[in-house]
Amino acid sequence: MVRQRHLTMQDSTDSTSAALASLATSLPPSVKVALADGADPATKVLIVTLARAHKRNALDDVTVLGLAAVFDSLPPAVRAVVLQGEGQHFSAGLDLSELSERDVAGGIAHCRLWHRIFQDIEFGQVPVVAVLKGAVIGGGLELACTAHVRVAEASTFYALPEGQRGIFVGGGGSVRLPRLIGVSRMMEMILTGRSHDAQAGQLMGISHYVVEAGKGLEKGLELARRICTNTATTNFAVLHALPRIAESDPAAGYLTESLMAAIAQGDEEAKRRIRDFLAKRAGKVVGPG
Ligand code: 1HE
What are phi and psi of 153, to 5 degrees? Predict the structure, then answer.
């Protein structure tokens, strides 16, 4: 059972809670924030919940702007985020009811808004663990792709019904998803409208973990807490340097990697950790399983 505290204005036991309580009052009802209980006070994990279960967490503008407000205003003590959906589904994607009246210029502006906000999540302050279940469809899958680690409950299914709806991805999916599953698989998903279950999504590289129903948040929090124990510099390097290096030409990549590696190892905390290992005070790497 995962304990979490939903924030209210009364909940201001420390500055992080106070900052989040103030943020919570500015959010729409479709986005909730809660600090995970039990974490080391210095390494707080924030649970961000899409809370439009009655609309299967479809992403309307208000909800997407709510996500932007959260990721723009993370208090410094928050070291990782777990992103989840309320109810049976992570997200049914773009709220189609907002699409019908939009002209071409409005469509471009909307798409660029999503791009900006989703980039702020992907290249934000902290690692994000997405906990998936049920529908992870269209823009919901695009949002899941902005996270750095994905945990899928067994009920998860992935689809891109854009072909069926006469539209196209617009939340950066054509940039991010091919990196996970390849252009060919993404093409086939849109062209044929097929769904993939949790196991298939895992084999394809969408999720990093598949867990049984109801265990996603627990696993997501376990991973987020582990991520919080890395140095801030390593997490920064992984979020901001690694994807850029992977996309750059090798010569620039090697140069950037050498600079980033030097910065990371020059950190006092890194030096302390390495001294601890050499003095047999640090844990060994444990094998899988
Ligand atoms: C919605 C949406 C939505 C549900 N926009 N309202 N996404 C899709 O094409 C997925 C469309 N949704 C579905 O296929 C199904 O709703 C589900 C498989 C996700 C869930 O089925 P079910 O039977 O549990 O729920 P439901 O009865 O279909 O939906 C409950 C309510 O949510 C209902 O509203 P109500 O007022 O009749 O109660 C639905 O209309 C509403 N709802 N999904 C609006 N997506 C940046 S570009 C991204 C492009 C895309 O994301 S394309 C993918 C769009």
Answer: -75, 160
pTM over 0.85: yes
Q: Give the span between the Cα atoms of 171 and 136, in whole angstroms.
A: 13
- How many Å apart are CA 19 and CA 83, to the nearest integer? 19
pLDDT tens, position by position, 225-277: 999 999 999 999 999 999 999 999 999 999 999 999 999 999 999 999 999 99
Q: What is the CA radius of gyration of the chain?
A: 20
Query: Which tens digit of pLDDT belongs to each residue from 112-155?
Result: 999 999 999 999 999 999 999 999 999 999 999 999 999 999 99
Given a cut of 80, whether residue 12 has pLDDT beyond it is no
Task: Tell me how far the alpha carbon of residue 273 lies from the centroid of ligand 1, in angstroms.
Answer: 49
Place of tokens 């444990």: 286
Mutate to test the pocket of ligand 1, among 56, 146, 162 (most ligand atoms within 8 A of CB): 56
Give the torsion through C-alpha atoms of 168, 173, 177, 178, to 10 deg.
60
Rounded mean pLDDT of the chain? 93
Active site residues: 142, 162
pLDDT digits (tens, 9 = 90+) for 155-190: 999 999 999 999 999 999 999 999 999 999 999 999
Show Cβ contacts of residue 67 under 8 Å, excluding neighbours closer than 6 positions: 31, 48, 117, 121, 143
Picking from 132, 130, 168, 125, the residue whose alpha carbon sits closest to that of residue 146 is: 130
CA terminus-to-terminus distance, the chain: 23
Centroid of ligand 1 to alpha carbon of 163 (angstroms): 15
**Residue 201 pLDDT exceeds 70:** yes
Q: DSSP assignment of 149-191, as one string? A: EEEEETT-EEE-THHHHT----SSHHHHHHHHH-HHHHHHHHH
